[in-house]
Amino acid sequence: MLDVGELYIWGREEGEGRLGLGPGRGPDHAGGLSIPCKVKELPFPVAAVSCGGFFTLALTEEGQLWNWGANSNYELGRGDKIGGWKPRPVPSLEKVRIIQIASGGYHSLALTDDGKVLSWGHGGQGQLGHGSIESKKIPSFVEALAHEHIIYISCGGSSSAAVTDKGKLYMWGNANDSQLGVPGLPEIQSCPVEVNFLMEDDGLGPHKVLSVANGASHAMCLALRESC
């Protein structure tokens, strides 16, 4: 992404449209794109981007979410399983201002300008945070976080995380490899759980989490120790 808001993309295309360049730019053409190519179908300057397993998200400067690519697990949040070769806005979010986006293997999160979290896509590992393993066809608010003001979100392969304005860290989803940071959780944690071991450290004062990052089977966070 350039400072003028133009989006460039490259890599392998396997027929699901993740590059957003239309048909004919896939593995039949030397395995994909080795040189970045401009995504011309985005009509507005782009402020942020995120890549999922086989799909792509772009957030415009006006806070509108566009996406494209694979959709067999409702990754695009449009209510169907029809994939997309070209960028299109998410219909249910056209009147919602989004300030941050995050993508996992087959799911996504979006953060609204009033600190609420939406999730959609595959939910088989509890990564959507709705208290079940059901997938979501369209973006749905994570009600378990409704009492918090969220300022940062992140997705792993099948896990998710959120940071509040008070510096609290919540995580949910696949816990099979201890990637949620809370001992004793079931393999599938379908509701957000607070990671609170950071709050006190040998009497030196509590930690305030600033941001979080998720991998496929691990996670890390950036924290600030507050004065007592």
Estimate the helix proportion, in percent: under 10%
Largest sheet: 4 strands, antiparallel
Total strands: the figure is 16
- What is the top-level CATH class? Mainly Beta
Q: Can you say what the CATH homologous superfamily is?
A: Regulator of chromosome condensation 1/beta-lactamase-inhibitor protein II
Please give the CATH architecture.
Answer: 7 Propeller
Rg, alpha carbons: 18 Å
Helix and strand run: EEEEEEEEEEEEEEEE
Label the overall shape. globular
Beta-strand proportion: 35-45%
| N-to-C CA distance | 42 Å
| CATH fold topology | Methylamine Dehydrogenase, Chain H
Helix and strand content put the structural class at mainly beta
Query: Roughly what is the average pLDDT, rounded to an integer?
Result: 88
> Could you say how many structural domains there are in total?
1
Strand order of the largest sheet: 3-4-5-6
Which stretches are poorly predicted, pLDDT < 50 over at least 5 residues? 26-30
Work out the helix count: 0
Characterise this structure.
Keywords: Repeat. RCC repeats lie at residues 5-62, 63-114, 115-166, 167-225. Residues 4-221 form the RCC1-like domain. The protein is an all-beta fold. The chain is built from no helices and 16 strands. It has strands at 8-11, 33-38, 46-51, 55-60, 65-69, 84-89, 98-103, 107-112, 117-121, 136-141, 150-155, 159-164, 169-174, 188-194, 207-214, 219-225. Strand 7 and strand 8 (107-112) form a beta hairpin. It is globular, with a radius of gyration of 18 Å. The N and C termini lie far apart (42 Å).
